[in-house]
């Protein structure tokens, strides 16, 4: 049994008043032509009063109450109003198979009514038609309410599933962003910390410079993490300004950070500088280069890295990160989840491009193509052939 609410209690009281008023207002027409003693009339009225009071049980015992009131309604007019409310409740809150049995029981008084009439009068026919019309309306209204409730419940369930999917997607986006940002920062810190560990006899000036870089990198990593966590703490629907996102113009700074960590980076920017690609395209290019440099530091420490970004509006942007394979490379001190390239491929696909990677001719190649629409053009489609994943 569910806990009753104020709305449920108000509805029960409303149905009680409806049944009582219906019985009183229709009593004169229903009792016309019937000769009842004062005692029989009082008993009929008391039965109707008890039937109206019994409606407060309709939520707990709807089927039993409807059956009892339909049977009692065959002998007492004052039970007709409560019976209509009871059959409505069954139709609105019980499965169709149960409703069908109650409908059969509601139709049963018809033959009994005909058998008790020696001859059919106009009044008797009108009374029977009115009764069945009222019962049909009660069933129809109940079935409509049931259908509407099921529709609302289905729409609510769909909305909840959509909300859960949106929350899941948001969690994946945040996790991808944290991986892209923090993996790069922490790999730089690991390189400098490893240099201090293996060169304890380094000149004090080099130690101070490496320590300063580690401190600045740790501070920047904390700032990045704080910004991402701040997004999670924003109230839903709050229109807060977004934090600055990286673009193609930030690639030289990214290369300088890797050079400061001891990685030889050859950055070649051949993209048309007379126009700017979409923000999502520039941000995706930055993340591709960032992931390529991070992986090179982890899996090919000390190896030179070649980064090439080329393209123009209408033809798209091509990004290529190459580094030679290092045989028997020491394991990276920075652990990874192994999901960087997978997440990068998903990010590239969402931006409308494609990403491939692989080993060949002693090199590891990470290559991507992203659309760059010319002014007035529709979004471009990733070429079917694409760039090969092997160099």
Automatic annotation (TrEMBL):
Keywords: ATP-binding, Coiled coil, Kinase, Membrane, Nucleotide-binding, Phosphoprotein, Transferase, Transmembrane, Transmembrane helix, Two-component regulatory system. Its EC number is 2.7.13.3. Residues 10-149 form the DUF7134 domain. It catalyses: ATP + protein L-histidine = ADP + protein N-phospho-L-histidine. The keyword ATP-binding applies. InterPro entries: DUF7134, HATPase_C_sf, Sensor_HK_TwoCompSys, Sig_transdc_His_kin_sub3_dim/P. It comes from the Bacteria. Residues 145-172 form a coiled coil. Residues 237-256 are annotated as: Disordered. The chain crosses the membrane at residues 69-92, 98-115, 122-144. Residues 171-236 form the Signal transduction histidine kinase subgroup 3 dimerisation and phosphoacceptor domain. GO terms for molecular function: ATP binding; phosphorelay sensor kinase activity; protein dimerization activity. Pfam families: DUF7134, HisKA_3. One of its GO terms (cellular component) is membrane. This is histidine kinase. It comes from Streptomyces caatingaensis.
């Amino acid at each position: 049994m569910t806990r009753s609410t104020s709305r449920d209690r108000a509805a029960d009281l409303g149905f009680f008043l409806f049944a009582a008023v219906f019985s009183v207002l229709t009593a004169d027409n229903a009792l016309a032509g019937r000769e009842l003693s004062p005692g029989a009339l009082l008993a009929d009225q008391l039965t109707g009063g008890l039937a109206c009071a019994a409606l407060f049980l309709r939520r707990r015992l709807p089927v039993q109450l409807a059956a009892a009131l339909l049977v009692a309604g065959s002998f007492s007019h004052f039970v007709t109003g409560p019976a209509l409310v009871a059959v409505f409740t069954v139709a609105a809150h019980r499965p169709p198979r149960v409703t069908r049995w109650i409908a059969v029981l509601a139709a049963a008084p018809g033959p009994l009514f005909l058998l008790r009439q020696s001859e059919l009068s106009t009044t008797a026919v009108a009374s029977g038609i009115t009764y069945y019309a009222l019962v049909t309306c009660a069933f129809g209204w109940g079935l409509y309410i049931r259908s509407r409730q099921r529709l609302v419940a289905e729409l609510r369930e769909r909305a909840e599933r959509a909300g859960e999917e949106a929350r899941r997607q948001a969690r994946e986006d945040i996790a991808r962003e944290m991986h892209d940002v923090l993996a790069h920062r922490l790999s730089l810190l690991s390189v400098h910390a490893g240099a201090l560990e293996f060169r304890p006899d380094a000149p004090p000036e080099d130690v101070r410079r490496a320590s300063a870089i580690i401190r600045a990198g740790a501070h920047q990593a904390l700032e990045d993490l704080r910004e991402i966590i701040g997004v999670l703490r924003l109230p839903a629907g709050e229109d807060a300004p977004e934090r600055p996102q990286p673009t193609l113009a930030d690639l030289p700074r990214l290369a300088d950070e890797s050079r400061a960590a001891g990685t030889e980076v050859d950055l070649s920017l051949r993209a048309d500088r007379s126009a700017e690609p979409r923000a999502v395209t520039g941000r995706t290019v930055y993340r591709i280069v960032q992931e390529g440099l991070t992986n090179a530091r982890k899996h090919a420490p000390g190896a030179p890295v070649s980064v090439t970004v080329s393209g123009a509006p209408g033809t798209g942007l091509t990004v290529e990160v190459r580094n030679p394979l290092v045989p028997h490379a020491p394991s990276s001190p920075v652990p990874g989840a192994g999901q960087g390239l997978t997440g990068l491929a998903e990010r590239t696909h969402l931006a409308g491009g494609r990403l491939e990677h692989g080993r060949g001719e002693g090199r590891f190649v990470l290559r991507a193509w992203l659309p760059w629409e010319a002014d007035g053009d529709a979004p471009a489609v990733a070429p079917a052939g694409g760039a090969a994943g092997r160099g």
